[in-house]
Design goal:
- By secondary structure, the protein is α+β, with helices and mostly antiparallel strands.
- It has two domains: 252 residues, no CATH class; 94 residues, no CATH class.
- Helix content is 44%, strand content 12%.
- The protein contains ten helices and 14 strands.
- The strands form five sheets. A four-stranded antiparallel beta sheet has the order 3-4-5-6, with helices on one face. It has a four-stranded antiparallel beta sheet with strand order 7-8-9-10, covered by helices on one side. Strands 1-2 form a two-stranded antiparallel ribbon.
- Strand 13 and strand 14 form a beta hairpin.
- Helix 1 runs antiparallel to helix 6, helix 2 packs across helix 5 and helix 6 runs antiparallel to helix 7.
- The N terminus is likely disordered.
- The protein binds zinc ion (ZN) (3 copies).
């Protein structure tokens, strides 16, 4: 994910034809954190220690991060505000932009406490001068998260956090390049749906609120906490509303999905057991729809089974997505679990067929159904027929 490549301010992303954003709060640049805003008085100390005196290691004062933290939490407020009630496409747009901005600002505020050079895209090129002048390209949110985990050694976030952040950044980039309705990902056109945004936002809000509480709030001065805590309370209330909405949606869906549970699999986008494949692939929960079972099959392997495609094929593993003997598309995945808990050996994300056992094609080795002691996949069967 080329996250770091997109550091444009939030207001650049208004290509969806909606009315220009009026309130100034919405038009604030998202990233990077202007360095001058994040620096406190301690940085104004004389640069050189008097000769003969040992240099004192000065811990950067709490004041250093108050600006960015306040700014980040303000963005979070805006996210919950935009997602409240029935969000319009414009609401979704600003919820996405401001959630990306909040994540970036808050992660970098903590990273900066570790060392200011770590918010540079390439820390090895960091100089104090470029930092002071805010004249540098900063790292993206994913890199910031990874640096906090790997360099600062913080036990924060998990695979899901990274996944949610990745989706969000994709949406943000799509907003900036194609507008909200649809965007291209590979060959497939995608659409951003309100419930999907709410689900991803709820996950990330949970993560960020804990992050602020555990990693940033303790660094602030007591007099700064009052304002921050008031803002945080608003975000908690907003998040509770979003969760209530998601719960209600799930309860409404339960009756609808009950008779289909034995064909319903987990959605790679929202992770809810609400994905149905029948030519069209649709998630009844997040409303994501795709005509490309082939793509959804790959996403399932990557995000539900959490198999790293690269290391799997490097280790000479078998095909992760194979040919379906029923519909002849490349969307057959092994070891798929249904909402009922039933586990099938093979499931096709295009036609929705599942197979408890499959033979290998006598000619090419692709999965095939056996008949009269022979197994031929659709391809080899077609090729054979053509010859007659
Ligand atoms: Zn979904
Ligand atoms: Zn199929
Ligand atoms: Zn074959």
């Amino acid at each position: 994910m080329a996250d770091g490549a997109h550091e444009e301010p939030a207001e650049d992303a208004s290509e969806d034809g909606s009315a220009p954003e009026a309130p100034a709060a919405d038009a604030e640049p998202a990233a990077p954190i202007p360095a001058q805003q994040t620096r406190g008085e301690a940085d104004a100390e004389p640069p050189a220690a008097p000769v003969g005196k040992p240099t004192r290691a000065v811990r950067q004062p709490a004041k250093v991060i108050f600006g960015p933290v306040e700014n980040g939490v303000d963005y979070l407020c805006s996210v919950t505000h935009h997602l409240a009630g029935a969000p319009t496409p414009r609401d979704l747009k600003y919820a996405i932009l401001h959630l990306v901005a909040a994540t970036e600002v808050l992660l970098k505020a903590r990273l900066q406490l570790e060392h200011w050079s770590l918010i540079f895209e390439k820390p090895q090129t960091a100089t104090r001068e470029t930092f002071d002048n805010a004249d540098f390209k900063s790292c993206g949110s994913i890199e910031a998260l990874e640096r906090l985990q790997n360099i600062a050694g913080l036990d924060i976030g998990n695979q899901q956090t990274k996944r949610d952040l990745n989706i969000l950044i994709q949406w943000r980039n799509a907003l900036q390049h194609y507008g909200l309705k649809t965007y291209k990902e590979g060959k497939a056109a995608k659409t951003v749906y309100a419930p999907a945004v709410e689900k991803v936002a709820a996950n990330l809000l949970d993560f960020l609120l804990n992050f602020v509480r555990d990693e940033l709030r303790p660094e602030l001065k007591r007099e700064e906490l009052q304002a921050l805590d008031d803002e945080l309370r608003n975000v908690y209330t907003g998040l509770a509303d979003i969760k209530k909405y998601l719960d209600n949606r799930m309860s409404r869906l339960r009756a609808e999905l009950e008779p289909l549970r034995d064909q319903t699999v987990q959605c790679p986008l929202c992770k809810v057991y609400a994905l149905l494949c029948n030519g069209l692939v649709e998630c009844r929960f997040c409303e994501a729809v795709s005509e490309w079972g082939v793509v959804v099959a790959q996403e399932y392997v990557l995000h539900v089974q959490e198999i790293d495609w690269y290391s799997h094929s490097k280790d000479g593993g078998n095909e992760l997505v194979d040919w379906c003997p029923e519909c002849n598309t490349d969307s057959l995945v092994a070891d798929v679990v249904f909402a009922t808990g039933r586990r099938t050996s093979y499931f096709c994300f295009t036609c929705g067929c599942d197979f408890d056992s499959l033979a290998s094609c006598d000619v090419c080795g692709r999965p095939a159904q056996e008949a009269d002691g022979m197994a031929a996949c659709g391809w080899c069967l077609d090729a054979k027929l053509e010859r007659f």
